[in-house]
Design a protein that fits this description.
Among the domains are: 60 residues; 40 residues, no CATH class. The strands form 4 sheets. It has a 7-stranded antiparallel β-sheet, with helices on one face. Strands 4-5 form a two-stranded antiparallel sheet. A two-stranded antiparallel sheet has the order 8-9. It is globular. 14% of the residues are buried. With 276 residues, the protein is of the alpha+beta class. Strand 2 and strand 3 form a beta hairpin. The N and C termini lie far apart (64 Å).
Length: 276
Amino acid sequence: MSRLHALVTYWSARAKADMDLYKSVRAQNLAVLNIDERTEATVGSFAYKWEVQQSYASSTLYNMCGITSCRTIHLSGLLFRKPRRHTTFTRCHVILASGHLLIYQDTLRKRSGKKLVHIHHERIAAIDLQGCYIYSGLLTENDLLYQNRTFDSNTPGHNALPRIYLEDGWTSTDEDAMTTFVIWHSKSKAWFRSSHFVDDVKASQKSAAKDAKSGLEGKFETRLKRVSQLGATGRSVVFKARSRAERDHWVLGIGNEIEKLSGREAEVRVVQAGKS
């Protein structure tokens, strides 16, 4: 129990320190760019590069651990998930680790809607990122199927109202599309020629001639590989973060995991051993 209590103390302090870092980075950027939080929601999404070139990016938030896999858990935190296009968002706890997105139930409620106090978070889904694609920003508007159409007379044209999350005091005024990202994976597969024979035609011809001459033709591994079929109906899982800053962190982390998985698919060829 003493060990468990130490872990609870550490992760509570760690979560608070991470949120304090988010707040300090945003406060520093607001001071450098001389804007307020409401304007930051627009400037951060649509401003030109030269307008925000003086902004600050923390090396603690965006570090090399995700690329070098120095930690077992790449990212973890709260997200809002919509498993299918025509469903509603539900709050869940998400863990990104080893090329998988593990989704756990956040809260239990009675039929009346009252929250039940519990310590067990059941795993409700797991997404294998192998062969998946991720996109975010304005491209997700069609996956939302709805948008916050509230009207604020102080800021015409800006639909989202200011939000505050009481558990840590984090605030956000970002539009729905700016806090959303979608993970898409195909339901069908197709055969595709190996990149070794697509990118270099001369190399493939020389390899085939060498195989026929040495009598090793047919002893190589297949030159076709199974890939996700594009242009076909797939499945989209929509996630919404609390702010654009958190969304960028999740998109970068998931993108790194997808790239690492694709890099592991090295094409191995059987090479003729030296003559004895």
